[in-house]
Q: What sequence folds into this?
C-alpha cells in the first residue's frame, strides 16, 4: 500500500471539547473555520501606555473575569443541556461569545504584563511621548520662511496633537502615535523647528509652534 502525504491540507479541524463547571461537552458537528494569518499578525504590539490606559484595561479585565465570563459560561451550560448541538443555535452563539471573552482576557493580560508606562513629562523644550504639540502646516519651503513670524497665519493653519503609544491612538480626539509619520517626525524636535513629511507622494512641511504637557 502506498501512503501519500497530503500537502497544505486546509480541512477545518473539529472543534475542541468545551469544559464548563467540570463537565465536558463534545460537538462533533461543528468545525473550526480555517483562517489564513493576516499580514500584520506577526507585528509586535506597542507596549507604551499611559497610567490612565493601564487603569482602564485593569478595570475591563476585572469585569470580563468576574461578570462577563461567569454569566456567559452559565448560558453555555444551560443551552448545552438541551442537546442536539448541530441545531442548537443559542448554544453555538453562547459558546462563540465565551471563547471571544477568553481570548480578550488573554489579550489584555498580555498587554498589562508587557506594558511600559509613559513617564510624566516635565520638560517642554523637546517633543517627547505624552506631549501635546501644536504645529503649523506649510505647502512649500518658501511659505515656511516668508510667514515664519506671522502669528495670525499660524493660528489659522495650526493643529494640535498629543503623542502617545499606538494603542491609544485616536485621530478624532487629536491623539497620534509616536510611530505615525507626523509623530515620528516630531519626536526630539523643539519649538521653531520645521519638519518635513512625505504624505501621498507630496512633501509637506510643519513648523512646531508650541509644546505643552
A:
Amino acid at each position: 500500500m502506498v501512503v501519500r502525504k497530503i500537502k497544505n491540507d486546509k480541512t477545518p479541524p473539529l472543534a475542541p471539547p468545551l469544559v464548563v463547571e467540570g463537565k465536558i461537552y463534545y460537538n462533533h458537528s461543528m468545525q473550526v473555520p480555517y483562517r489564513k494569518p493576516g499580514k500584520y499578525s506577526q507585528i509586535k504590539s506597542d507596549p507604551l501606555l499611559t497610567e490612565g490606559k493601564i487603569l482602564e484595561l485593569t478595570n475591563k479585565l476585572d469585569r470580563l473575569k468576574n461578570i462577563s465570563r461567569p454569566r456567559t459560561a452559565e448560558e453555555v451550560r444551560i443551552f448545552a443541556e438541551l442537546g442536539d448541538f448541530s441545531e442548537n443555535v443559542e448554544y453555538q452563539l453562547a459558546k462563540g461569545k465565551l471563547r471571544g471573552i477568553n481570548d480578550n482576557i488573554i489579550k489584555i493580560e498580555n498587554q498589562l504584563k508587557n506594558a511600559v508606562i509613559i513617564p510624566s513629562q516635565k520638560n517642554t523644550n523637546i517633543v517627547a511621548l505624552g506631549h501635546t504639540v501644536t504645529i503649523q502646516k506649510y505647502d512649500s519651503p518658501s511659505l515656511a520662511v516668508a510667514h515664519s513670524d506671522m502669528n495670525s497665519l499660524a493660528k489659522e493653519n495650526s493643529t494640535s496633537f498629543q503623542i502617545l503609544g499606538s494603542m491609544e491612538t485616536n485621530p478624532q480626539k487629536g491623539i497620534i502615535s509616536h510611530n505615525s509619520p507626523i509623530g515620528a517626525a516630531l519626536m526630539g524636535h523643539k519649538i521653531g523647528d520645521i519638519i518635513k513629511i512625505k504624505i501621498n507622494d507630496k512633501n509637506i512641511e510643519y513648523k512646531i509652534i508650541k509644546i505643552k504637557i
